[in-house]
Amino acid sequence: MLASTSRRSRRSIQSRSVIFAASRWIANGENVLLLGPPGVGKTHLSIALGREVILAGYTVQFTTATTLVAGLAKAHGERRLDEKLLALSKPKLLIVDELGYLPLEPDAAHLFFQLVSRRYETGAMLITSNRSVAEWGTVFADPVVATAILDRLLHHSHVLTIRGDSYRLRAKRKSGLIKPPPDGDGPPLGSASLRPVTVGNNLQPRS
After folding, report:
1. Cβ atoms of residues 47 and 97 within 8 Å
2. Closest listed residue to residue 73, CA positions, set 104, 99, 95, 94
3. pLDDT tens digit string along 96-129?
4. How many CB atoms lie within 10 A of CB 124?
5. Rounded-to-integer distance, Cα 77 and Cα 81, Å
6. What is the 3-state secondary structure (H, E, C) of 32-61?
7. Quick one: CA torsion of 106, 104, 134, 24, rounded to 10 degrees?
8. Dihedral of alpha carbons 19, 201, 196, 32, sign
9. Are the CB atoms for 123 and 130 separated by under 8 Å?
10. What pLDDT is recorded for position 103?
11. Reduced 3-state DSSP string for the chain
């Protein structure tokens, strides 16, 4: 459920829901970043959005960040990176799940940058991550390249942060194995709040 927000924030979220439902962001080659802690439904939401995109008649490919980077590294080692990048540039939407959960390959930043550059303004990407964009320099172990990646991803983007308690830990909290957070600290047990994050003017859909 949505946490209490200002009327402006509610209208902002509602407008984004319309954009997602209509898949206008796909047609415009925009990106969506779903950020938040583990267990708040980022993967579930990304799959739901991907399904809507398919129903709208577009092609979608889903992969985890570690699988994606491992595939790029393997293709690079076999001298067929261009072929791999071409294949990954064909789907209208590329969903990259769980960026930041596990350590990436040493050359991950450079390989991921090439993929983002190849898809820039031609194909949409949806990325889920448990790290804020400010931490992506650590995720890729290369702050300079991470900045270049974000420069392209955020140019035409919708950045949404999901805040709340992990749904996976709900049963454990009810059983007493894990103590609930103090009163007033975060949303109710098993709930999550969705809020847009302003990154310059990047949250406005292109005309």
Report:
1. no
2. 104
3. 999 999 888 889 999 999 999 999 999 999 999 9
4. 25
5. 8
6. EEEECCCCCCHHHHHHHHHHHHHHCCCCEE
7. 120
8. positive
9. no
10. 81
11. CCCCCCHHHHHHHHHHHHHHHHCHHHHCCCEEEEECCCCCCHHHHHHHHHHHHHHCCCCEEEEEHHHHHHHHHHHHHCCCHHHHHHHHHCCCEEEEEEECCCCCCCCHHHHHHHHHHHHCCCCEEEEEECCCHHHHHHHHCCHHHHHHHHHHHCCCEEEEEEEECCHHHHHHHHHCCCCCCCCCCCCCCCCEEEEECCCCCCCCCCC
What residues contact residue 195 under an 8 Å CB cut-off, 6+ apart? 3, 5, 9, 13, 160, 161, 163
Hunting for tokens 């859909």 — which residue is that?
205
What pTM, to 2 d.p., does this model score?
0.76
Residue 29: HSE in the Cβ half-sphere, 13 Å Cα cutoff: 12
Residue 56 to residue 23: CA distance in whole angstroms: 7
Q: Which residue has the tokens 């983002």?
A: 116
Write the single-letter amino acid at 13. I
